[in-house]
Design a protein that fits this description.
Elements: E1 2-7, H1 13-27, E2 33-38, H2 50-57, H3 75-78, E3 81-84, H4 87-96, H5 100-104, E4 106-108, H6 125-143
Parallel strand pairs: 1-2, 1-3, 3-4
Helix pairs in contact: 1-2, 1-6
Bound molecules: 4-nitrophenyl phosphate.
Domain Phosphotyrosine protein phosphatase I: 1-142
Protein name: protein-tyrosine-phosphatase
Family: Belongs to the low molecular weight phosphotyrosine protein phosphatase family.
């Protein structure tokens, strides 16, 4: 299965989600490929936010080599599941969907709950890691 994690900047939440989901899938022996992208282009080409890199490293996951990129409509063809962090991401991605098949691939990682944007809140990175980790475990339960 191919999963794309999406947030606004692709430097805080979705890089964590990519790293955590790939780590958990590998550990579970699943042949899953996980990537991430953002809906905003401010940080394209750069690595993840150092606070996300640290939050992941603290839990033994290296996300430092990831490179920020923009979501592209062709991602609807490349991925089976597109997991967004909040309702604004959801609206942005659904606005780019071409048909019902595209729309059906898009879900919030936590179901009805959002993963809050930690960009302006240093103390939120560790709790956001935990939220995303819980969401990824649920996804594995659901789709493995
Ligand atoms: P993310 O957080 O969507 O979790 O990557 C953000 C990162 C950067 C900005 C906003 C949110 N920004 O406005 O630059």
């Amino acid at each position: 299965m191919k999963i794309l994690m999406v947030c606004l900047g692709n430097i805080c939440r979705s890089p964590l989600a990519e790293g955590i989901m790939q780590h958990l899938a590998d550990k579970a022996g699943l042949d899953w490929h996980v990537d991430s992208a953002g809906t905003g282009d401010w940080h394209v080409g750069r690595g993840p936010d150092r606070r996300s890199v640290k939050a992941a490293a603290d839990q033994g996951i290296d996300i430092s080599k990831q490179v920020c990129r923009l979501f592209n409509v062709s991602d609807f063809d490349k991925f089976d599941l597109i997991l967004v962090m909040d309702k604004s991401n959801l609206a942005n991605i659904l606005a780019m969907a071409r048909n019902a098949e595209d729309r059906q691939k898009v879900k919030m990682l936590l179901g009805d709950q959002i993963v809050p944007d930690p960009y302006y809140h240093d103390a939120q990175f560790a709790p956001v890691f935990k939220l995303i980790e819980a969401g990824c475990k649920e996804i594995i339960k659901q789709y493995a």
